[in-house]
Amino acid sequence: MGIVLNRRTETEVVEVVPSLAALAGEEDLIHDGGPVEPDSVLALGDFVHPDEAGKHVAGSVGLLDPDRPEPELRRMRVFAGYAGWAPGQLDAEMEQDAWIVTPVQPEDAFSPDDLWSRVVQRKAAASP
Predict the structure, then answer these.
(1) Among 34, 45, 63, 68, which has the highest number of CB atoms less than 10 A from its own CB?
(2) Cα–Cα distance between 78 and 63 in angstroms, integer?
(3) How far apart are alpha carbons 25 and 49 in whole angstroms?
(4) By CB neighbour count within 10 A (0-12 exposed, 13-18 middle, 19+ buried), where does 34 fall?
């Protein structure tokens, strides 16, 4: 499972998931997380206490657990849908060098629209 990080929609969080609007910000927009289950919602947060995350991602970033009380967050981004692969598909794509792979930085999940160029520059700087 993955989440597309750089596809913002024009739909406000408050329109789709009013219960998350206070955590996300009243005017924050939903992001298109991918083509799988586009009616599902994932909330990625920058946790003050990372152990409050339902699923840890990187550093202080993780997925919100809907069964936990409101966590203390620095920021949050809400996604509709996610990316997914059939068994073995991602491994095959990795073997074909179909992906540019670089270590994640927690800031990536909340970056503005220039995420792609920043990650490519970071990858180039890390290459010998």
Answers:
(1) 45
(2) 10
(3) 19
(4) buried
